[in-house]
Structure formats: structure tokens, C-alpha cells
Amino acid sequence: MYIILAILLFGILIAAHEWGHFIAARICGVTVHEFAIGMGPQLWQKQGRKGTVFTLRALPIGGFCALEGEEEESNDPHSLSNQGFWKKVFVFAAGAMMNFLAGLLILLVLNFQAAGFTVPVIAGTAPEFEAVNGAALEEGDVFWSINGSRVYLASDVDLLLMLANREPMDLVVLRDGEQVSLPGLAVGTYTDSQGQSYEGYGLYRGVAVQEATLGLRLKYTWYNGIDFVRIVWYSLRMLFTGSAGVSDLSGPVGIVSTINDVGTQSVSVGAALSNIAYFGAMLTVNLAVMNLLPIPALDGGHILFLVISTVSEKLFGRKVPMKYEAAINMVFFALLMGLMLFVTFNDVRKLFS
User: Fold this and answer.
1) Above 90 in pLDDT, residue 200?
2) pTM, full prediction
């Protein structure tokens, strides 16, 4: 059941992304030839208004919204190539915008079921903490930021402490509503609550619970969405710095497997649906961020070429021919498909191992 839900979730996320492009194109008066969910052979089609064909295709790994003048020059006044700069940016970015809004909507629905929200606080410090860092912290201090990165959720504390990598840490806490800065907290040898020695910062972390109100539900929906965006950037940074490898990436097979694990390990069907929905919100925000990266063949790559062509026209009086963009997009699309095949093979190998 959870595997079927995972496949349906993929379809919903893809549909939301392509629907964003479709709605933006219609608003800007751009002709849409086809709105497709999935890739590969066509399974179903329906002729819509204004000449758009809606199709369902066999492979649930993507989708597309075929626009007039997207990949080639066109004399049609309703082509994308004949629209102004900001209309083009709006059409290209609309898919990611719709994914982000879909993620926020899922989080908002989940947050309206919450009775309260947890706030990360200092529950105490190790006995040796004062000798290393002075009487800098008090029980009940609320985590505000770690090394300049805002603590939005209780789960952020462990992540940001891990990223601090046991280097001196700049901590900001809230105390009686006021921000208190604690720069350069040193790593030392401390004793934990079970009397065991460890290397770390000597902080005992706890949580306080705030009763859910409308304002808090809206605030934590936004916090969670922004936190998902930031996690994507942290992941990309780890990938480019070598802290993580390509083998750590997951494709559709790995994501379906993870969703199945999330469902089967939940304590009830209701909890499983909530957990899968939360995971889906993270996926759709991830999709939004990744699609806006300035990489050819992605929406961010289209925007990058648009900026380059516009600057070229202003400076040299001529645009960059679309055939060059199309050729570069084709090369990068092939590279992305190669990466997808590698990740999928790796996902299958992990399943069998």
C-alpha cells in the first residue's frame, strides 16, 4: 500500500510542478501544446481547450509542459520566445513556485493537527562546562542561532552542532526575550548525564512545549518550509566539499523504498499517512530548490540563459541564438539522465544488499 502511495505522491508532485508552468503560461498568453504527467509511451490523452493535449505517460519519473517557442524561435505572437523578460522568468520559475506552495500547504494541514510545538532549550550543562566556557548558559535558555544559522526547529540543533564539526562555536540564545550572544564556545572533555566522558560542547538539550495557536501554526509552517530549503543547500554543500558522495544520493527507487519504510515503521496507519505527507512536503520543496539551480536542462538553467541572452542583447545588440541553448540543454539532459541511471542502479543495489 505504501509503495502505491509513494508512486501516487510522485505523480502529485510532478503534476503540481507542471501545473505551475501551465498556469503561468496561460496567464501570460503562451500557447501550451501538451501537458504531460510521466515520460515515455503515451497511455491516455484528452484534447483540452485552446488546443492543449493532456496526456498520461507510462514512466512515473517526470513530466513536461510543451510550450510554443520554448526550444526554438517562433513567429507566433503567443509563443514563449516572443514574450518579455519578466513573463519568461515567471513561466520558467512557476513550476518551482508551485512545488514550494504545495509543500507549505501540506505542512499547514499537518500543523493544524498539532496540539503544540516544541522549542529547543538548554536543559543544563556538563559539570565541567563552567570551567571551560564560564557561566555563559542558564537552564531554560532558548536556542536562537548556531554559527550564524537560525534555529527554526528543535531538530535543527543536532544538525547545526554536527555541521559545527567540534570547532569553536558561536551560540545565540534567547533569555527572558532578549538575545544573548555566546561567541567561541570551546569543545572540551565533558561528562554526560550517565557519567560517561565525551568530546563535545557540554550542552544538555531539551524542549519546551508551546500550545498551538493559529499564529504558531502559520509560523511553524513557514519555518519548516524554510528549513527544508536550507537542508537542500547544506546537502549540496556537503556533496561539493566531499563530505557526502554521489553514492549517498537517492533517486525514485530509493525514495519509494524510504517512503515504504516510513509507512511500515509508523505506529498506526494514521501516523504513517502523516509521516508520508511530511516526507512528501520535504520532497516537493527539495524539487523546487533543485529545479531553480542554474544548471542547463533545469528551470534555473533556462533562467540563466535568459539573463545571458538579455545582457548580450543590451551590450552587443544581439541575443544568443536559441540553437546554442538547445544544444547545451541536450548535453546536460543526457548527463542528468546518466546520473539518474547511476543513482537508480545504486538504489537497487542497496535494496538487495
Assistant:
1) no
2) 0.88
